[in-house]
Each structure stands twice: as C-alpha cells, then as structure tokens.
Amino acid sequence: MSDQELTFAQTIKRIEEIVALLERGDAQLEQSLALFEEGTALIRSAGRMLDNAEQKVVRLVKSEDGTPAEADFLEESV
Amino acid sequence: MNVITVTQLNNLVKSSLDNTPELSSVCVQGEISNCKLYPSGHWYFSLKDSESSVRCVMFRRDASMLRFRPENGMRVIAVGRVTVYPRDGQYQLYCASMQPDGIGALHVAFEQLVSKLKEQGLFDTAHKKPIPRFPERIALITSGAGAAVHDMIRILGKRYPLAKVIVMPVRVQGDQAADEIRGAIRYANRYNVADLIIAGRGGGSIEDLWAFNDEALAHEIYNSAIPVISAVGHEPDFTIADFVADLRASTPSNGAELAVPDRYELSAMLRESSVMINRSMANIIAQHRKKLAALSSARVITSPLNYVQDKRIALAYLSERFYSAGDRLISRGRQKFASLASSLDALSPLKVLSRGYSLVRGNDGSIIKSSDGLHIGDALTVSFSRGEADCVVTGIKP
Lengths: 78, 398
What we know:
- By secondary structure, chain A is α+β, with helices and mostly antiparallel strands.
- Helices cover 53% and strands 14% of the residues of chain A.
- In chain A, α1 runs antiparallel to α2 (29-52).
- Chain B has four domains: 6-103, CATH 2.40.50.140; 134-261, Hypothetical protein af1403, domain 2 (Rossmann fold), CATH 3.40.50.10550; 302-344; 351-392, no CATH class.
- Chain B has a five-stranded mixed beta barrel with strand order 1-2-3-5-4. Chain B has a five-stranded parallel sheet with strand order 7-6-8-9-10, sandwiched between helices.
- The N and C termini of chain B lie far apart (170 Å).
- At the A-B interface, α1, α2 and β1 of A face α5, β7 and α10 of B.
C-alpha cells in the first residue's frame, strides 16, 4: 500500500489495526514482521501528513447552474 | 340525589378538570411562594397574586430544563396543565416550563417551541449522528465576516490543518438569517460538500441569536445527513439549534475544537503506536526465540551420539535379559538330566550287584534264573560287583 492511496483517517485506522494485531501476537513470524514494517511505514507517513499539512480555506459559491464552486475566501467577503 | 364517596368525588372532579381543554395547557403569571426543592428533584411551590394562590409542582425532568432557579418572590410565567391529586383533593398546576416574567414573549415562544420539538423527538439522543474522527472537509455555515469565522478557521488550522475548510457565508441575524442558514445546510447536503458542518455565530442578545431558534431550521438540522455541530453565542446561551444538533458547542471556538482532533495529540498518539508495535514485535521475537531455544535443547539435537548410546544401552539390557533367560533354561535342563540319571542309576543291575547280589550266566551267556535245566559239571560264569569267576556245578537242588 502506498501512502498516496490512503487518507489520513484510513492510515490511522490501519495503524490501529496493526497495533491491535501485533499486540495479540498470534500471527506467524513472517506475517508479524510484515505488519511491523507496514505499521512503521504508516506511522512515518501519517507523521509526514501532519507535519506537511497546510490548511486550505475556500469560500463556497453557487455557479450559474446551481452546482457548488470554490472561490478564495477573504474574511471581509459577504 | 346519589350518595358518593370522597374518592368518587375527587375522581369526578379530576376527570372533569382533565377533560377541560383550557386547563390542559395554561400560561399562568404569578409570584412564587412556599418554594421547596425535594430530594427527588421535584419542585413544589405556590403561585400567587394579590388575591389568590394556587399550588404548583414541577417534576425533576422538567425542572432540569430550567435555565434559572425558582425563588420565593420571583415573578414568573408558568406553563402547564391543571389537575387534581385525588388523595387530598387538592388541585395543582403541573408546570412543564417556566420563565421569569418580564423578559419577554421570546422566552415563552422559545419554551413552547422546545417542548413542541421535544415531543416530536427532534432532540432524541438516539437520532444524533457521530462526529467523524478525522473530517476531511468542514463546512462553516456562519457569517463570512467577524470574529467567529476567523476564530474557527484559526483553531481548525492550528489543530488539524488536514481538513479543508469550506466557508458558506450566511447572514446570522435578521429576518432572513434562519432561511439562509437552513438553505446552506440543505445545499451542503444536496451536493455533499462536506463531511461535517459547524453552524453558528458569535455572542449577542437573545434577539441576535434568534435565527437559531427557528422551527424550520431545527427540522433542517434534524434531517441533515451531514453531522451538524451548533456553535452559537457564549457558554450560557442555549438555542433550539443546540438541542437538535448532533453536538452542541458552547462557542464558535469551542465548535472548532470539538470538530477536529489536535495534531499534537495525534503526533503523541503516533509515537505511542510506534512504541507499542516495537514492543509487540520485540515480544513476538522473544517468544519465537524461546520456542527455538526449547526446540534446540531437545537431546536429539544437542547430542545425537547420546541418542545412539541410549539405544545401545537398551540393546545391551535386552541381550542381557535374553542370555540370562537362556542360561536359566540350560541349568534347568541340567538339573532334570541329573535327576533322571540318578533314577536311572538306581535301576542299573550293577547297583544291585554292589549290594551283594551276583549275576550267573551260562556258557551261551544267557542269564541263569533257576536251577532247572542245569546239570552236574556245567560251566557257569558268576559276575560280582567287581570281577567274575568261572565255576562248575557240583550239585543241584531243585
């Protein structure tokens, strides 16, 4: 699984699964090692997501056909 | 005239009162006296004016909704129904809600709407949708200007910059406000523009916040498929939107805090996860190592020669048993042979001779058992136990 495919929520969910699986400790050694590697990579990736995230703020506007479109949000607008 | 019991009388009055529509929901203005809170949480008091007084009760459930504490001398408007408590024949006002008199009709309207929507089930906790743990898109339905939107954007950005913030500017006070807020919620749902909505505004007077007490807006929030956090005014302000929303925030800033997790807490959680999987992995490896150690300490592996030796010892033991069994057999045979030989010996003629008997044979070697057929002058051989003698018959006795 590559980092790009997972959202942050999915990444966290998978990490929590892996933590639980490894904690149970009933998997085969190879499987445990694979989970461990996957978990370590996901934790790194989630950390990167948090560190590199830049907040996006948009203003929602109605286009002519009524569908939503995005515009820059300026706090003074309205 | 019929004679009836007291109970029958009280029940008659009760059913008469209960069936009077004007008494099933009344708004009574008066001053509180004899106010008493029971340990059960029910309030008992009287309402009085200059000429009369009426007994009142407010049950715990309704009393818990009060935003003020009833006190003697307080002028209030109480809403409730009138009925008789048959046991003592006292008629009472059962208060469902109450507000301080003089604050205005808005309060009464508010309370009336609260009980109406409550009855319709709009406030049921069972209906409340969970707030997503990690919302990706958050719609802010609020004024595009002012401190509220600014604070929410700032706090969301600080706590969880991963979420995209979608501002849906609306008017939050005035006649159009409720409709605009309602329209924004409907639009957000129709085009699924977000996975969480924060609807709110900063503090103000009760009139300023009134848009959030709108009945139609309450239904819109109730029907929203996207979870809604209400974030209206200041901490003590409660609006209808607060009751019907999936989550009530005390202020817009609090709304932003409740909407998203905190990145520093998340980082800490990630570090903890890392520690946990490292520890688990170490445990798993230790377990496997232990298993391996147990396996490799088995004797076949540690000293294969010992194993052969064991077998050799067993073999030696077996063969020893085999041989000793053989020996026993042989010696038993020997004994038997000896006993047979000795009985054989007892029967031997030589043995008889040794006791003093002699054996007589004729010329032809035949054994002479009687004197019949012997003649004088016949030669005989006499065998002794040891040695023989040749003899001649000199006389015969029959």
